[in-house]
């Protein structure tokens, strides 16, 4: 197990388009494992590769539900429906939280660490986390979409992604 350092804003790697993954090897599997360890250690519900300094289309989401850890490699949002507005934070912006408008439902086509294609349908908080992580892979940060920032005492507990 290896915990990587989380890149904090501002950093060039957080705002660039990430490269697609074409090689599904042991190195990729180890990277995904490190990302998981790093996310858990940081108490997050998701982590994208650029957040540990790697500009590749790799992210994970784990909101502690029956889906377990969702591996997002070269993910594409195929469908969006509805909308939700809710609080969001990011491990690359410690202590910063704001309301962000997201689709209520998304259908995502992704690959796992072995290259296997998976279709994920999600709504609510899981859909929010997926959209946040997929944005990271295109250099889009949640701060570009915040409708309103929270004051420090407004949120008792929050989860970064
Ligand atoms: Zn984030």
Automatic annotation (TrEMBL):
Binding site for Fe cation: 90, 132, 136
One term of GO molecular function: peptide deformylase activity
Pfam annotation, one family: Pep_deformylase
TM helices/strands, residue ranges: none
Keyword terms of this UniProt record: Hydrolase, Iron, Metal-binding, Protein biosynthesis
Cofactor names: Fe(2+)
EC number: 3.5.1.88
Catalytic activity as recorded in UniProt: N-terminal N-formyl-L-methionyl-[peptide] + H2O = N-terminal L-methionyl-[peptide] + formate
Enzyme class, UniProt record, top EC level: hydrolase
Keyword Iron applies: yes
Enzyme active site: 133
Cofactor binding mode and count: Binds 1 Fe(2+) ion.
Classification via InterPro entries: Peptide_deformylase, Peptide_deformylase_sf
Family named by the database record: Belongs to the polypeptide deformylase family.
Function per UniProt: Removes the formyl group from the N-terminal Met of newly synthesized proteins. Requires at least a dipeptide for an efficient rate of reaction. N-terminal L-methionine is a prerequisite for activity but the enzyme has broad specificity at other positions.
Annotated protein name in UniProt: Peptide deformylase
